[in-house]
Amino acid sequence: DLAITDALGRYRMPVAPGQTVFAIKPAGWRLPGSDHARPGAWWHIPVVAPPKLKYGGIAAGSLPRSFDVGLRRVPPGDGWLELRVFADPQVATPREVDYYARDIIDSVLAETATTATGEARRRPELGLSLGDIADDALDLYPALNAQTRRIGVPWLHVPGNHDLDFDVGRDEDSLQSFRNVYGPDSFAWEEDEAVFVGLDDVIYRPGATPGYIGGLREDQFAFLDAYLPRVPKDRLLVLAVHIPLFEPQALDTFRDEDRVRLFALLRGFSKVLILSGHSHGQQHWMHDARTG
């Protein structure tokens, strides 16, 4: 469900246990809070008996009478957004968190390269990590976030196949520990220069082979159906996912029928950029008639 606030900021929407209510940050505004590694505003609707998971799942909470988000205006930008994108940091041990800190975070902080016109490179204004934040060791999130936070800009996270709670029995419950730290697994975030939509595209299949495939859930399509018509068609639309929507090295990992449905929703947008991780490689892929 998508609720639009009125002139006084009021809204109504139905909720059910296990769901998450979250705010979509509009362009020109800043969300409350100072934790750059966990930007956003959300509230997890509690369940009566949450499952006991190895990495904690979603912490127990209460249901407030209202969930209000205080936004602050930000000064107008100059039409340029400086973005940093990470894919698959995939830390497995505290030592690897230290590698992440010294090899990656320190490198971003020390950037001194110049642009083609000889100007000093701008500091990043927004960050994005494309899944596999940890390598199945979800208790490393706090240590990893402490390093990401040093960059000092809002940092968005989408989940990967190594961010799952493997001690659950169905896909719908497989990201509880991730959601407890980073909020909704699918979200939108608006800037003047671009609209970002993050999507969990890992379908967990307990007991099956393979144990996961790429795809989207029905509730995600419902969210896109409700939200995308409100996005200006000429705005740059950035989709952030973990599993690529194309078939790398003849290995089809994303459900074709889900890609067809997704691309049908994107058909009216003139500028679409899809960012994905998972393959631990770097390449550009142009989607055309061959992939719908």
Integer-rounded radius of gyration: 19 Å
How many DSSP E strands?
13
Q: Report the average pLDDT across residues.
A: 92
By oligomeric state, this entry counts as single chain
State the end-to-end distance. Answer: 27 Å
Shape category:
globular
Total of helices: 5
Helix content: 10-25%
Strand content: 15-25%
- Helix-strand sequence: EEEEEHEHEHEEEEHEHE
- Biggest sheet, spatial arrangement of strands: 8-9-12-13
Q: What's the main sheet like?
A: 4 strands, mixed
Uncertain segments: none
Structural class: alpha/beta
Description:
The chain has 292 residues and is of the alpha/beta class. Helices cover 18% and strands 16% of the residues. It is built from 5 helices and 13 strands. The strands form 5 sheets. The chain has a 4-stranded mixed beta sheet, with no helix packed on it. A 3-stranded parallel beta sheet has the order 5-6-7, with no helix packed on it. The two termini are 27 Å apart.
